[in-house]
Amino acid sequence: MNTQPPKAVVAVAFVIGMISQAYGSDRYRLQTKQPYEIVRSIQATQDGLAHGIGSPKTTLQPILEHAAEKFLAAEESVWRDPKNAEAAVIFTLSGGRLQVIKKIIDTGTSPEPDLELMRAALAYVEGNESQARSLFSKIDAKAFPSVIAGHIAVVQAALITKESPLEAIRLFDLARILSPGTLLEEAALRRELILAERIDDINRFASLASEYIWRFPASAYFKNFHDRFLESVTRFGLELKPTQTVIFEDLLAHVEAPGQIGLYLQIAEKALVEGKLEITRFAAGKIRQLAVANEGDNARAQLYEAAADVLAGKLEEGNKELDQVNMRLLTNRDLALRMAVKSLSKQIEDESTGEQGPVSPDLSGRDSYLPLSTRNEFSSSTIEIAQQKLEQAEMVLSEAMHEQHLR
Questions:
Q1: What are the tens digits of pLDDT across the range 132-165?
Q2: Which has fewest Cβ within 10 Å: 147, 251, 258, 304?
Q3: Which residues contact 170 (CB under 8 A, 6 or more apart)?
Q4: In this structure, are residues 387 and 394 in contact, taking their beta carbons and an 8 Å threshold?
């Protein structure tokens, strides 16, 4: 058995030690410290947030405000030291008062490379992306000390995410290498996950998500990650390829069983409406595996599988399954879905026998005459009709719930 403590525990212990040194017995003990020493205290506090120590509002904000007062009162000569000049940049990128860096730039006492970096940081924080992109493009993060290099790489990546997502991913990776175990690494991981989804790279997304969950489970920003993670998983599920099912299942293994069932239910329903029948069947099958003891979720899975069979033209099999679904276990939304599929099935049967006539009244309350589909267009037109019907079902259900609320 490995007796070494987990990396996360070591990181937390290190952060606690740093904060203890930074704070001491007096209030932050910042009175006699140089700006770069004060910024170390800020960074220690930030890194604590990445490991569940404190909160941004109650822990970090008071330190930033106190630091701003000290920086504004500092002699101009203080900013000649590159360490202090770079500390001012870190302070600014950490959410510190802009008045500080503006005053330092105006004095012009810092070395020119640091002044250029200050101007770039100010443009970025003020939202002047064009100027910030131009200024940061001339800066080499690796030419600066590691304490600030990670910050530079993160900003450079953030400025090019839309135009060059692969280069942005490289820069986020660089920031993580330069700043391991810090809030900067945590933030870079979260942003990189968004890019992995954008470029539709499920393998990279799965690897980064596992890394985040392992390294930063107590982060103050874990909920931000979790909410986005669930949205991304649902989108990946709707675009799933047969070769990706295993990695997708591994990805969802990070979620507790009830959460997995909820995600698979969303995927099954949305895939059905979009006519992605194989994905519907895959998701419904996973629901059956995970919800063995939950009759309601099993009934919904059965409904989606039956609806997929109807859309695929397996009318007899699909209708038999629909009739076997226990309607008392379905939600109002699913009852409306079942009604829409039944209506669609009747239309398909009429088409197959050459009959043409009104379908039973649709769910919007108006008689609907659905067009006959040719043999060649059977699948696509069936899905199109189904989408219309399911959208009508959703509309009527929403209206009914609204009316009930008004009563």
A1: 999 999 999 999 998 899 999 999 999 999 999 9
A2: 258
A3: 157
A4: no
